[in-house]
Q: What sequence folds into this?
């Protein structure tokens, strides 16, 4: 096979393979539309490269225009998808202005003042600007993880590739008067190879990001209770252990609040399990809103909940429990008959010394039992400290 033809077919083949891979990913993760946009980007770039080497029946001039329109669409889609993947607001106006500006300049030097060198500079500078715009959008999140950092660096390298490489090659080997011998020039060879490398690296990074998304979703499902949206018992214990360790190192106070819905079995029997599910979801929402992001809230049993509160002593944890109890008992639950009152009981314990999670939960559970025993819809505290082992020192002779 001719070397020039092989190089010309390299990028379309890579682009179509990557586009197909992202399309397959999207079919399994339709809640992530950026994957579909990535598939579109790579698939559209494939004919762009083909039409650089092969001429359509419409003629060479219009074929080059179609090719660069494909490149512009692909560049806009790729940059938008990357920015959207990391939760940033996509700068559609900036991307559109750069892409459209490049195409308008390309058309000027194609139809009005034909000049191949300026056409090359116009499109490369437009893509370089888009790459640097993506880098600017990723800059605030570049330290959030490895994929963010790598894509930030790749965006910078892509921008430098479009600006610096183009200028160096054009100055060293240009200007280019026509397409005669253009596809065997150093510009075309370096352009194709650098694009192939950057495309693969960016795609691999995005594949990694998609895989991390799946792993994160699976972990969330493993540690989250689907009905309440809170951590399940396993997730709560893991999160609580981490918080206890962090607070122990910093010597911060920690308190634990256990809550149990009153007469929940009777409520299920009278109003049905669907009503019971609504009660659990409603209480969990109020508990999550009260705890905010500072604590760890979980559903650790059928109608039992737990909240670990860093930076909270016994008094502040009691205020937290009383606030939730008052808010919940004074409200109503959608789907229950008017006037149906649902309440909860609370047990509160503050950590003493380096107390582990298990004894802390045991003391809070004992306080919760007292609240249940003494009429429910109340808050009880655990003032008990964990047992301390003393070793008697031998008596010294006086």
A:
């Amino acid at each position: 096979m001719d070397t020039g033809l092989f190089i010309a077919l390299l990028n379309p083949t890579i682009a179509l393979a990557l586009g197909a891979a992202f399309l397959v990913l999207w079919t399994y993760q339709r809640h992530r539309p950026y994957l579909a946009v990535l598939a579109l980007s790579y698939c559209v770039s494939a004919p762009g490269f083909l039409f650089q080497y092969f001429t359509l029946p419409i003629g060479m001039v219009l074929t080059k225009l179609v090719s660069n329109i494909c490149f512009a669409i692909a560049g806009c889609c790729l940059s938008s998808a990357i920015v959207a993947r990391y939760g940033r607001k996509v700068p559609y106006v900036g991307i559109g202005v750069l892409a459209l500006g490049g195409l308008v300049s390309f058309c000027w030097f194609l139809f009005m003042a034909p000049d191949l060198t300026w056409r090359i500079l116009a499109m490369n500078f437009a893509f370089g600007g888009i790459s640097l715009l993506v880098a600017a959008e990723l800059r605030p999140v570049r330290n959030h993880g490895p994929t963010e950092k790598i894509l930030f660096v790749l965006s910078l390298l892509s921008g430098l590739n479009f600006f610096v490489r183009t200028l160096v090659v054009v100055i060293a080997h240009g200007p280019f008067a026509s397409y005669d011998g253009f596809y065997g020039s150093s510009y075309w060879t370096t352009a194709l190879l650098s694009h192939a490398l950057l495309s693969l690296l960016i795609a691999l990074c995005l594949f990694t990001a998609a895989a991390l998304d799946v792993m994160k979703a699976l972990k969330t499902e493993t540690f989250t209770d689907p009905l309440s949206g809170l951590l399940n018992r396993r997730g709560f214990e893991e999160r609580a252990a981490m918080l206890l360790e962090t607070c122990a190192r910093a010597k911060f106070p920690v308190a634990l609040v256990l809550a149990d819905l009153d007469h929940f079995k009777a409520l299920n029997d009278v109003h049905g399990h669907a009503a019971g599910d609504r009660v659990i979801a409603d209480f969990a929402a109020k508990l999550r809103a009260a705890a905010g992001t500072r604590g760890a809230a979980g559903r650790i049993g059928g109608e039992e909940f737990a909240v670990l509160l860093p930076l909270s002593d016994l008094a502040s944890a009691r205020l937290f429990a009383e606030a939730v109890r008052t808010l919940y008992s004074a409200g109503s639950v959608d789907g229950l008959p008017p006037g149906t009152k649902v309440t909860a009981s609370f047990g509160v314990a503050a950590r003493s010394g380096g107390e582990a999670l298990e004894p802390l939960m045991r003391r809070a559970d004992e306080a919760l039992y007292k609240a249940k025993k003494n009429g429910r819809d109340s808050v009880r505290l655990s003032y008990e400290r964990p047992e301390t082992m003393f070793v008697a020192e031998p008596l010294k002779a006086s």
